[in-house]
């Protein structure tokens, strides 16, 4: 979102809490969690000062520079939402790992098409793949530990099918060429990411199955302890009524036989 203040308030800045009295704390954008960022435009840079006569070329230059600044903020926020690596973070990492005392400047080739390069997409895919694999394996281990800790826990066939399918996906990702099974090529990152996502979804669906969750928090013993005091008083009247009806039925049948004789 871009905000265009009135010319009499331009240029409009936001003072941060850490630098209230210094120019270093002036900001022209702020983040809205869950929505994105709000950038403040400078109407003077877009249209020029009313009191100063500027040529059309100067106005066009300042306008282009202002639009590039705002769009750069939007692209940076978009990169952050995608999880693209930060240039500042990589520069600090390069400075820390460099043995030379002189600063090693990293040069980044910009992507003029969409603001993100192919190698950055590879980094995002690799990080996402690693997290999905870790989550899938940890969820599988938790499922096994849960079933072993509660032997009385009944596992439905659909849960078993999901676990077996997830294990098949993980084996296809982690297998080597010596084993006789279908393996995914390590260079095919898209297929690896798709299978890792499927394995993660299957393991989550198996672990958080509503039947297992219900038995985990409400076992059969607890259900019996809760409903037994409510149902036990009804058993005796039911049995007495059943016995009374059986006696009445036998007496009625005996009377019918006597009548026929």
From TrEMBL:
BP terms from Gene Ontology: attachment of GPI anchor to protein; GPI anchor biosynthetic process
Topology in the lipid bilayer: Multi-pass membrane protein
Name assigned to this protein: GPI transamidase component PIG-S
Subcellular location, record wording: Endoplasmic reticulum membrane
Entry annotated with the keyword Repressor: no
Family membership noted in the UniProt record: Belongs to the PIGS family.
Lineage top rank: taxon: Eukaryota
Metabolic or biological pathway, per its Swiss-Prot or TrEMBL entry: Glycolipid biosynthesis; glycosylphosphatidylinositol-anchor biosynthesis
One cellular component (GO) term of this entry: GPI-anchor transamidase complex
Main location, first listed in the record: endoplasmic reticulum
Transmembrane domains' residue ranges: 224-243
Pfam families attached to this UniProt entry: PIG-S (PF10510)
């Amino acid at each position: 979102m871009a905000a265009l203040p009135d010319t009499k308030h331009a240029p409009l800045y936001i003072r941060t809490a850490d630098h209230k009295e210094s120019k270093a704390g002036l900001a022209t954008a702020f983040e809205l969690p869950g929505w994105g960022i709000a950038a403040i435009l400078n109407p003077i840079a877009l249209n020029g000062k009313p009191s100063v006569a500027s040529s059309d070329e100067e106005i066009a230059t300042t306008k282009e520079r202002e639009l590039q600044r705002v769009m750069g903020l939007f692209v940076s926020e978009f990169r952050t939402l995608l999880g693209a690596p930060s240039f500042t973070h990589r520069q600090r990492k390069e400075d820390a790992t460099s043995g030379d005392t002189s600063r090693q400047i990293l040069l980044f080739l910009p992507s003029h098409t969409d603001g993100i390069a192919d190698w950055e997409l590879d980094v995002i895919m690799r990080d996402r793949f690693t997290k999905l694999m870790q989550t899938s394996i940890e969820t599988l281990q938790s499922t096994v530990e849960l079933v072993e800790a509660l032997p009385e826990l009944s596992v439905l066939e659909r849960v078993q099918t999901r676990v077996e399918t997830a294990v098949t996906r993980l084996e296809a990702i982690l297998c080597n060429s010596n084993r006789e099974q279908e393996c995914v090529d390590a260079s095919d990152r898209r297929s690896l990411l798709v299978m890792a996502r499927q394995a993660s979804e299957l393991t989550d669906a198996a672990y958080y199955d509503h039947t297992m969750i219900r038995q985990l928090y409400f076992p059969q013993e607890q259900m019996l302890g809760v409903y037994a005091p409510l149902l036990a008083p009804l058993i005796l009247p039911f049995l007495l009524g059943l016995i009374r009806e059986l006696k009445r039925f036998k007496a009625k049948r005996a009377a019918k036989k006597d009548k026929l004789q």
